[in-house]
Design goal:
The chain is mainly β. 0% of the residues lie in helices and 51% in strands.
Length: 293
């Protein structure tokens, strides 16, 4: 307890953290891996380091670390340095860091991402809001899940670079999802949005999973001549709006759900498909041809 730091280096031996209570900052280093068998409680910041290639950090107890978290791993190329962290009912505060494998974060409170480079897959689960204060770069897939009723997922930094499929899910009736992928092509995986959806991309927007939205949907291509192709059997219930310019096509398939087109602007050709009917609640402006099925 009290205002003094605690630091542990376990050499090349696996470090199994039992019940840990630290009054200020905590640092743990191991070349053999870091795990927990008890709850880690830290009043200040916490730093976890594996200083041998391709060694994992797995801290999956219901921990309670209050200050900013930093993880440091390294790899020899096999990309095995994965990080798993559960902070129980305490909000996760993160410092900027890069990972050399997958990063999995979970908490029953909020998560604020900041300045991360994940050389693997990113999985974030929260019972409250998921937000960010700086850009996130992910080489693999990204998954964001908020299980708390009416909690938002807001990833609106315009320099994000999520390379693999991006999936998201919210709960309740007004759990909105906002994603801006900067100048990186945005591949939408499975989206289950119990609220409104806002998507922005500067290098094309496609889907590899089903997009289900209970509220409105907005797809904004903020660079000219980039395709928007949403051809899964989607289910967007509210008005679907599109902002798009330049010589690239836009295609939407809404499966068996009625497609309500809001304000639509398309720089080239436009195709809209639905097995439940197609209506408009806004103005549709298309520079090229239009096909409604």
């Amino acid at each position: 307890t009290g205002s003094a730091n605690v630091a542990i280096d376990n050499g090349t031996t696996v470090l199994n953290l039992g019940t840990v209570g630290v009054g200020q900052n905590f640092s743990a280093t191991s070349g053999g891996g870091i795990t927990d068998s008890g709850v880690i409680t830290v009043a200040g910041t916490a730093t976890f380091v594996t200083d041998v290639d391709d060694i994992d950090i797995v801290l999956d107890s219901n921990n309670a670390i209050t200050g900013a978290l930093t993880f440091t791993t390294q790899t020899g190329g096999s990309n095995g340095a994965d990080i798993t962290f559960d902070n129980g009912s305490t909000a996760i505060s993160l410092a900027a860091f890069a990972t050399e494998g997958d990063l999995t974060l979970s908490t029953d409170a909020a998560i604020a991402l900041t300045g991360h480079t994940v050389n693997g897959d990113l999985t974030v689960t929260s019972a409250a809001a998921i937000s960010q204060s700086a850009a996130v770069t992910v080489s693999g897939t990204s998954s964001f899940t908020s299980t708390g009723s009416n909690s938002n997922i807001t990833l609106s930094t315009d320099s994000n670079a999520l390379t693999g499929a991006v999936s998201a899910a919210t709960a309740g009736s007004s759990g909105d999802v906002t994603i801006d992928n900067g100048t990186t092509a945005l591949n939408l995986g499975t989206l289950t949005v119990n609220g409104d959806l806002s998507i922005r991309g500067g290098n094309g927007i496609t889907d590899s999973g089903v997009i289900t939205v209970s509220g409105t949907s907005l797809f904004n291509s903020d660079a000219s001549a980039k395709v928007i192709t949403l051809d899964s059997t989607n289910a967007m219930t509210g008005a679907v709006s599109i902002t798009h310019t330049g010589s690239a096509n836009v295609a939407i398939d809404n499966g068996t759900t009625a497609l309500n087109l809001g304000t639509v602007g398309v720089g080239q050709n436009f195709s809209a498909t639905s097995g439940g009917g197609i209506t408009d609640s806004g103005v549709i402006t298309v520079a090229g041809t239009s096909l409604f099925i």
